[in-house]
């Protein structure tokens, strides 16, 4: 029987664990605060920001939000960032991507106080992660690690193929999984759009993580028996329903499930974990800034 890894259930466990850490902060007179910054009015980004605010309320994190006009000069966003860096009630914040074309996202990230960079995208935090001394693990890769752990998958000595080399998923996940650490010690192959013979790389893996943003790119024919499959992809495809679309992953679920020993669904796999790990990083940031041991 193939195990369907339930991301909603694991995310819920993580939120429960955070409650204890939040109580420790409360005992010390502190309440963790997360801010979201949205420049422009992209509907999908608006939805993500709303969900993050709801998640905060659920666990007792104070949420703050700043809207910046999509046509404003970059300096207006930079001023907002400077204010958040100074605001003691905000322990962590994220600038929702994508930002409008006239703003250089990398220049935005460099301005975020690394101690409040709960996405883990600031170059200082990227460097610390690569050096094996991560302050904040980026939310999606950390969520993938937690899902593997929840399914009882020991990564030590395993061959992992990651499809995708983005700065937010593929690269940080590869860096985490090769660390000399209990939840690392894997041998990792990172594939991308120029990879020759992708199927050969996925077939030789014990664990396949698909993060390419291509609907159903990986199917059962590309997997060996008993592979663990983690599907990070979230893609909208046209569908004959009220919304006119449905969400599918980067994995063709049914054929992959027939080969896999364990697999994540879309939705309900990695997505909820990304949200939970943002809360985790916020509580960790609050612990560091307030000098409280939050045990994370
Ligand atoms: P990016 O577009 O930044 O990166 C995609 C990567 O996949 C690139 O490295 C690209 O290669 C590679 N790629 C594209 N096509 C192929 C192909 N045919 N074969 C092999 N590699 C390919 O995407 P993200 O990393 O931001 O996101 C990936 C997916 O994960 C998306 O569907 C996104 O929506 C989803 N996502 C889901 C999250 C969640 O919480 N569930 C969080 C973040 C992302 P190259 O570098 O050569 O262009």
Structural overview:
- One of its GO terms (biological process) is tetrahydrofolate interconversion.
- InterPro entries: Aminoacid_DH-like_N_sf, NAD(P)-bd_dom_sf, THF_DH/CycHdrlase, THF_DH/CycHdrlase_cat_dom, THF_DH/CycHdrlase_NAD-bd_dom.
- Its EC number is 1.5.1.5, 3.5.4.9.
- Belongs to the tetrahydrofolate dehydrogenase/cyclohydrolase family.
- It catalyses: (6R)-5,10-methenyltetrahydrofolate + H2O = (6R)-10-formyltetrahydrofolate + H(+); (6R)-5,10-methylene-5,6,7,8-tetrahydrofolate + NADP(+) = (6R)-5,10-methenyltetrahydrofolate + NADPH.
- The model has no long low-confidence stretch (mean pLDDT 97).
- With 296 residues, the chain is an alpha/beta fold.
- Strands 1-11-8-7-5-6 form a six-stranded parallel sheet, with helices on both faces. A three-stranded parallel sheet has the order 3-2-4, sandwiched between helices.
- 44% of the residues are buried.
- The protein starts with a strand and ends in a 6-residue tail after the last helix.
- The chain is 41% helix and 17% strand.
- Helix 1 packs parallel to helix 10, helix 2 packs across helix 10 and helix 6 packs across helix 7.
- It has two domains: 90 residues, Leucine Dehydrogenase, chain A, domain 1 (Rossmann fold), CATH 3.40.50; 133 residues, NAD(P)-binding Rossmann-like Domain (Rossmann fold, 3-Layer(aba) Sandwich).
- The chain contains ten helices and eleven strands.
- The site of NADPH dihydro-nicotinamide-adenine-dinucleotide phosphate has 26 residues, from helix 10.
